[in-house]
């Protein structure tokens, strides 16, 4: 979290936020503070997830739009964490903080536990379930009517204003990133391939319980091509499993992952063959997005050894046009269909 936002946050604010939803803040457990403040709180013996979103990150309409879509998916049988209403009957509560504010919401806590990349459960059965759940979300989204509560489009994301966060030292990367963005902007947007997506379904954003995935953290949800929701699980799974490996090692695992993922996805939704061929562009977008995010969020004058390694490795790949994986995507889709 940016330092100036940290200065606005306080224990008193946390207590007020929890109280809006009838929860106790005493004993609250912090779960995250990268883009939102996220806490586990309790109402009696029942745990919930309290999230506070600063107004510099999302508008009130943005948050409301996210929660309405999440609850639509929940009502239609997708394992997602239900957004609860406050004591006043609202999905989103607003708390003033100086000249700004925080938007507060409360989610059910997902059952199960996380699956790490070195866990025996991180296998093809999980990858298939991962794809099935993603496909079901996309299929249901085609029928969703957002009304006035529209999530932002992908290309409205501040983090894609690359020149805002990168310096002229990265002029070559900025040029490549802008070219990638323009290529994606030229694609036709139809309801069969474009709609609201989660946009961040990696292994840190779901729990696994009795062979089923329970997805949470829809903060990055946006209007974008469904294909991006296939690219991101592939990207992070490869990166976290074989990030220090070479392109061949990454690609071998990537092929195993994607084939199993598509096997599950195709049980719920179709995959456009022209769009699967575009998957490398969506993987590249994630590279450029992360590079921009790191420059926005990290103190570049005081990087840890791990942060320095991540940033330098990503920069080297971008400068050398080395993809996270190199695969025959259409052949993998054909195998998954067969």
Automatic annotation (TrEMBL):
<keyword id="KW-0808">Transferase</keyword>
<dbReference type="GO" id="GO:0004413">
    <property type="term" value="F:homoserine kinase activity"/>
</dbReference>
<dbReference type="Pfam" id="PF01636">
    <property type="entry name" value="APH"/>
</dbReference>
<protein>
    <submittedName>
        <fullName>Ser/Thr protein kinase RdoA involved in Cpx stress response, MazF antagonist</fullName>
    </submittedName>
</protein>
<dbReference type="InterPro" id="IPR011009">
    <property type="entry name" value="Kinase-like_dom_sf"/>
</dbReference>
<dbReference type="GO" id="GO:0009088">
    <property type="term" value="P:threonine biosynthetic process"/>
</dbReference>
<dbReference type="InterPro" id="IPR050249">
    <property type="entry name" value="Pseudomonas-type_ThrB"/>
</dbReference>
<keyword id="KW-0418">Kinase</keyword>
<feature type="domain" description="Aminoglycoside phosphotransferase">
    <location>
        <begin position="32"/>
        <end position="266"/>
    </location>
</feature>
<dbReference type="InterPro" id="IPR002575">
    <property type="entry name" value="Aminoglycoside_PTrfase"/>
</dbReference>
<comment type="similarity">
    <text>Belongs to the pseudomonas-type ThrB family.</text>
</comment>
């Amino acid at each position: 979290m940016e330092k100036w936002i940290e200065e606005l946050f306080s224990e008193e604010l946390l207590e007020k936020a929890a109280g809006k939803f009838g929860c106790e803040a005493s004993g609250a457990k912090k779960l995250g503070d990268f883009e939102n403040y996220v806490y586990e709180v309790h109402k009696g013996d029942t745990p919930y997830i309290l999230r506070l979103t600063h107004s510099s990150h999302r508008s009130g309409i943005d948050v409301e739009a996210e929660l309405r879509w999440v609850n639509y998916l929940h009502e239609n049988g997708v394992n997602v964490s239900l957004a609860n209403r406050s004591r006043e009957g609202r999905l989103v509560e607003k708390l003033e903080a100086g000249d700004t504010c925080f938007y507060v919401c409360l989610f059910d806590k997902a059952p199960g536990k996380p699956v790490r990349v070195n866990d025996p459960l991180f296998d093809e059965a999980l990858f298939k379930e991962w794809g099935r759940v993603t496909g079901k979300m996309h299929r249901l989204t085609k029928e969703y009517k957002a009304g006035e509560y529209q999530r932002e489009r992908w290309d409205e994301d501040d983090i894609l204003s690359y020149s805002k966060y990168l310096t002229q030292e990265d002029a070559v990367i900025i040029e490549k990133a802008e070219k990638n963005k323009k290529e994606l902007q030229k694609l036709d947007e139809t309801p069969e391939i474009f709609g609201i997506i989660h946009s961040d379904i990696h292994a840190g954003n779901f729990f696994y319980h009795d062979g089923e995935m329970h997805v949470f953290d829809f903060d990055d949800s946006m209007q974008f091509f469904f294909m991006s929701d296939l690219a991101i699980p592939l990207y992070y799974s490869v990166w976290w499993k074989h990030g220090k490996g070479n392109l061949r090692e990454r690609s071998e695992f990537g092929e195993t992952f994607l084939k199993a993922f598509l096997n599950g996805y195709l049980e719920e939704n179709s995959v456009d063959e022209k769009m699967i061929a575009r998957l490398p562009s969506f993987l590249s977008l994630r590279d450029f997005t992360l590079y921009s995010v790191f420059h926005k969020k990290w103190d570049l004058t005081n990087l840890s050894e791990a942060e320095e390694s991540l940033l330098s490795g990503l920069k080297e790949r971008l400068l050398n046009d080395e993809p996270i994986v190199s695969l025959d995507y259409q052949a993998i889709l054909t195998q998954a269909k067969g």
